[in-house]
Amino acid sequence: MSMSERREPYTIAWDAESECIIYIDQTLLPGRYELMRCTTVDDLARAIRRLEIRGAPALGIAGAMGMALAAVRSTEGDLGRFLDDLRRAGDFLKSTRPTAVNLSWGIDRVLAKVSMARTVAEAKALAVAEANAVAEEDELTCRRLGGFGKDLFPDDCTVLTHCNAGALACRCWGTALGVIRSAVAAGKNVRVFACETRPLNQGSRLTCWELARDGIDVTLIPDSSAAYLMRKGKIDLVIVGADRITKDAVFNKIGTYMHAVAAHHHKIPFYVAAPVSTFDLARVESEITVEERDRAELAYCGDRQLVPDDVRVLNYAFDATPLDLVDAIITEIGVLRPPYAKSFQFIETTRS
Ligand SMILES: CSC[C@H]1O[C@H](OP(=O)(O)O)[C@H](O)[C@@H]1O
């Protein structure tokens, strides 16, 4: 079946009948493909913390649907207290993963909409409708972004990716992988080197799974091989996703900065694919919290201990790449090129 015809259940969706969230549990991939049902905000927070649901745009959708979940489960009859409860649920969900701005963006988008309600019933309906709107817009956003990005690809090229910025990080299609899909659909001959992306292996487990299912040529490499393959002339360009883009830096999965430095040294184009919702242009790198995750993610591989108990572990989930190492930022409203200050003014006007 061609890619465009394959209709998978979306990575995350609102089930109107049972008023709950349905999502693919990404911790089980690639071995098991299981759809999970989430009925409470606490369940959703746990799923986000465990990266059952992950990826910036998917977190935006999850945040919006978390507000819908809080709304439909509420028994509060007073509108003022109902809205206060929703704001508290939103703050709780925002605390689960602080680096990706999309999570807060999705939550705040629904809260802004429900604040216009005149009754609790209207607020509940608005929350669900806005959450679904966030999800549906994501698909169109990814395809538009892919449409712009594909033109940056040579007709025959080998591309390096890091982590997973694919359909599993969005509602479907993907951002960085969405550009690859759009380039392949446009008839370009694209080969992919996917970095495994230690410690949680989003590259080997998720990106390789996605691309193999689409019949796209993908080879798994350890993160540590990327620079050597660049030195050997095996990489034509690098494309990654993003979790937050500030005035001066791109926050993305740990290891992204390493690839940006190596690409810059080898004069290889380094591209970031991200929707406008990932931009946080009121802040600079130094103001952003970089999520640190559990020691166990590095200290164990399954049941196998990899480091002595008395050795410290520092497990950053993200890093920051300065914009002067980024050759282009591909968005759903076009491709941004340096100097970014002028492009960012345009972004701000589209959002105001
Ligand atoms: C399309 S953005 C995906 C972005 O999110 C990933 O982080 P995580 O797997 O921890 O949610 C990674 O930074 C990807 O680039």
Structural commentary:
By secondary structure, this protein is α/β, with parallel strands linked by helices. It folds into two domains: 12-143, Four Helix Bundle (Hemerythrin (Met), subunit A) (Up-down Bundle); 147-351, Translation initiation factor eif-2b, domain 2 (Rossmann fold), CATH 3.40.50. The chain is 40% helix and 18% strand. It has eleven helices and 15 strands. It has helices at 41-49, 56-73, 79-94, 101-114, 120-149, 176-185, 202-213, 226-231, 256-265, 296-299, 340-351; strands spanning 12-15, 20-24, 35-38, 156-161, 189-195, 217-221, 237-240, 244-245, 249-253, 270-273, 300-301, 304-305, 318-322, 328-331, 334-336. The strands form four sheets. It has a seven-stranded mixed sheet, sandwiched between helices. The longest helix is centred in the middle third of the chain and has 30 residues, at 120-149. The radius of gyration is 20 Å and the shape is globular. Mean pLDDT is 95; it is low at 1-7. The ligand CSC[C@H]1O[C@H](OP(=O)(O)O)[C@H](O)[C@@H]1O binds next to α2 and β9.
Small-molecule components bound: the ligand CSC[C@H]1O[C@H](OP(=O)(O)O)[C@H](O)[C@@H]1O
Structural class: alpha/beta
* Largest β sheet strand count, sense and barrel closure: 7 strands, mixed
Number of domains: 2
Task: Please report the distance between the alpha carbons of the first and last residues.
Answer: 41 Å
Listing every helix as H and every strand as E from the N terminus to the C terminus, the arrangement reads EEEHHHHHEHEHEHEEEHEHEEEEEH
Q: On the 0-100 scale, what is the average pLDDT?
A: 95
SS strand fraction: 15-25%
Q: What oligomeric state do the depicted chains represent? A: single chain
Radius of gyration: 20 Å
Number of helices: 11
